[in-house]
């Protein structure tokens, strides 16, 4: 049978270098979770609204950081150049700012490289075997768009779109016979070089067990 999974994630946050950040996430418009990082401490608010605090190294060594943002290694980007087609869309206005809009069309090889080098991004596709899906893809369209300030060269917004239809009927072993994926991931950045204040909660519960803090997350 075919397998369809629909999820919507919205987030907003601030970062104060070198070691402070805060992030708020809304899952499927119903579940709210949050994270605050200050130094070596991570504060996590689960979907019930309870705050926990634990050591950053403990969280990362056990489960990684489920709140960490998607980062793309620059060397990976250079390797992708042979598998993409670039289009310069000229100058456009985004949120009242004049920005250069660039579109990159990715083939399956480029998408595979991008996913392999970004575990957080790869996880948005679910638990299916990415290699199997891409190898059995019937239709595939993927683009990356960036909007860049040509004065300071800051990326104000990036958008990754993936649409694929794969016939996985030959896989067997209980796997779905078809997989359709439609992904639209938008990351917007603003308030460059502005100071922010990140205040940890005062009602947090200390724990050394990440499962306690994360067990109530969807």
Protein architecture, described:
By secondary structure, the chain is of the alpha+beta class. It has six helices and twelve strands. The chain has helices at residues 56-63, 74-80, 108-116, 119-123, 130-135, 210-214, and strands spanning 2-3, 9-16, 20-27, 31-38, 41-45, 51-55, 84-94, 97-106, 137-148, 155-167, 178-188, 205-206. The strands form two sheets. The protein has a six-stranded mixed beta sheet with strand order 1-11-10-9-8-7. Helix 2 (74-80) packs antiparallel against helix 3. The longest helix has 9 residues, at 108-116.
Short recap of the structure:
About 20% of the residues lie in helices and about 45% in strands. The protein is an alpha+beta fold and about 220 residues long.
